[in-house]
Amino acid sequence: MVTIDEIRAAAGRIREIAHRTPVLTSRSFNRESRVETFFKCENFQRGGAFKIRGAANFIFSLRPEELAVGLVAVSSGNHAQAVAIAAGVAGARATLIMPDDAPRSKLEATRGYGADIVAFDRLRERREEVVGRVAAERGGVIVPPFDHDWIVAGQGTVALEFIEEIPDLDALIVPVGGGGLIAGCATAAKALRPSIRIFGVEPELASDTWQSLRARERLEIPPPATIADGLRTTRPGEVTFPIIERLVDGIVLVGEDEIKAAVRFLVSRMKMLVEPSGAVGAAALLAGKLPQGLGKVGVVISGGNMDLDQLAAM
User: pTM here?
Assistant: First the structure.
């Protein structure tokens, strides 16, 4: 299990590359949701998402001889950008494997950071098999998107900063994909404030963690068709799932229309561009999916990388 000391060590390790992102509030959102809400805005993070924290902690923990052979990662965009940025700082070559339906903005940004791109069909190919094949062909250390202690510790720095700034939060709401973000945040938050309640949010179309918790084992679902491309995992992580089982108070599900409504609210009322994956926590509050009487609620806005034509379509 990752510890608070490992998360604090990660915070020091990534300090020079990761921003300390702002915490924002909105009277309009509080009025609409009837909840006193604080937003940890990782959409303003370097690379546009929280992923730089875990990727940098992993890459900066590697030995020089490991960096010399290069890095390989698979991602729909945010982890890809993070690996490309951190690899550039570390002086390592990076190959990013991205689904062929990844948002154009994420694809172009990743290429802009100097990474090599390999496309794959996520509906027909298993991402684990593709990344293994590319790593074998080209050489390189695989940088996992979520399922590793170093990744979890890096992502936990989100909650470390959040609780330091708002120490009396009563609940923390976190998007759930593979589970790295919520596992790290739950570890940090529960260590700093044991009474805090942790809730994860998944799209209804990508409910692998929700289903797995009900079954008490890691289940795999078909490739999800949700608009929240960063949450299209098919199974929770081997490292992350036990942490979620132990520390997370519950997972709630939001529909596609609820996610779109949250994106519209955040951009029109708060003037803040948030991608669908990053807006699921806000969607859960606006739709009344969380328990009543939570008190002060912190919401992690996990990212803001979104195609403008996708935004216009909403």
Answer: 0.93
